[in-house]
Amino acid sequence: MFPYSVAATVAVNRFGLGARPGEIAAVRADPRGWLRQQLQPETVLPAPMAALPSTLDDLGAFRQWTAQLGRMARAQGVDPATMRADRAAQRRDRAAGSGSMAAPTDSGASMPQPQAPQMSSAGANGLSVEGSFKQVFGPRHARAVKARFDVAVSTERPFFERLVHFWSNHFVVSGAKPAAIAMPPSFERDVIRPRVTGRFVDLLLASTRHPAMLFYLDNLRSIGPNSALALNPSLRRQSAQRDFAIARSIGLNENLAREILELQTLGARGGYEQSDVTSLARIITGWTIARPPRVSYAQLTLQGQLDGSGLFDFDPDAHEPGVHRVLGTAYAQPGVEQGEAVLRALAAHPSTARFIATKLARHFIADDPPEAVVQRLATIFLDTDGDLARVCAALVDSPQAYAQPLQKFKTPQEYLVSAARALPGLAIDAMRLQRTLANLGQVIYNPPGPNGWPDVEAEWLGADAVWKRFLWAGEAAGSAACGVTPPAVLAREVLGAAVSSATLQAIERAESPSQGLTLLLASAEFQRR
What we know:
Helix content: 40-55%
Mean pLDDT: 88
Strand order of the largest sheet: 1-2
Oligomer: single chain
Number of strands: 6
Distance between the termini: 19 Å
């Protein structure tokens, strides 16, 4: 009906991040070639990303905050190691007649640990943990969300940017866990962005070794039951992580091992058992973060090593000794090499190939991905040693990807980004952006768990969600109605072959440009990609 092909419409709206006026027409001659050209490594960081704090800065900020929290705790009679009332200190104060404030009780007045999922506001101890937390890290989070949004709206390589978002939602570090609040943006920039068109194994290794992942999935707490650290109390005292206010327990923490197997490599149906989770957890005991004096933040800064790679450390005293078996294979390598060998084997496993292929096909084609595409991508993944650029090129070349437009329901972030790309005059400041995303149900960098945001329509499509989008569409249209292309013309340009005659007719009959834009943004076609 219009001079826009289905292939160009899909390339720009589903593989990309939503069409800007004229973009579908511009790529019409070779939409697949346009996508393949974007499968090149990023040579220069987008300016909004380059302006954000580095991993080193983020970790340093959290370290300083917890140190300050410890000082506040000790000043008010709270033991910073347990974040509970320091009875011994209170007895000393009373004996000395210090006149210090009344001690908090253990029944609700204790200051919560910074790494705990729930943060309470000031209690009887007078420590406003939540207020301090928001004051220090709230502005960082707002800047990072706005930077991510601005890059997505302005990028000339939307397919590449979508891949960044995809892999960040695969290797999840979420600020929903306070200990990780500062680190998801720098993790995405320093680990994900440089590797989305590289080899999967490199992405897996870099993710697992990064301070953000070690923090988020608690590997810092994991100690081999038969390690030197577990068997020698003096070593335990020497290795206390006082700078992060984290008390190490003696025993395994399986969080990181489980998520590596279930969510990052093999998948839930990938053939592993609980014994494999336990073995992998033992193997990666000792994978931790280097702290002063073992590492100098100032020296790393001077060397320009800001991405967190210089902070990875292996603690042999915490490592569970011995040979361990994962998926039937025995691993006897010394030290950190044992864990690296397992990760390399997992990255090359057929179940991993199929799991990754399925997720890519689901994200870029349909909620129920075509089996033929999944099999083809999995084969290429195995044949190319997990070359993600070649896997994505095969995805781009799959005829099934262009069989029908509008297969995927947009997440709230995708919806807002596509609206801003369609309406160049739409301005959304950082606070409004955060409020809108929260209202629509997707706080960026804060997925509720390590499985990330859902990627199927059933999890996003509901009466309340649609109504909230309609309300936002009216607000956005009102602020962008002046000086833009007529709404009916804009609908053809940004929806291409996907726009229906009924939607065009409704937009053309609108009583005002603002109403026409509202109908466009609220249309069924614009809700999908």
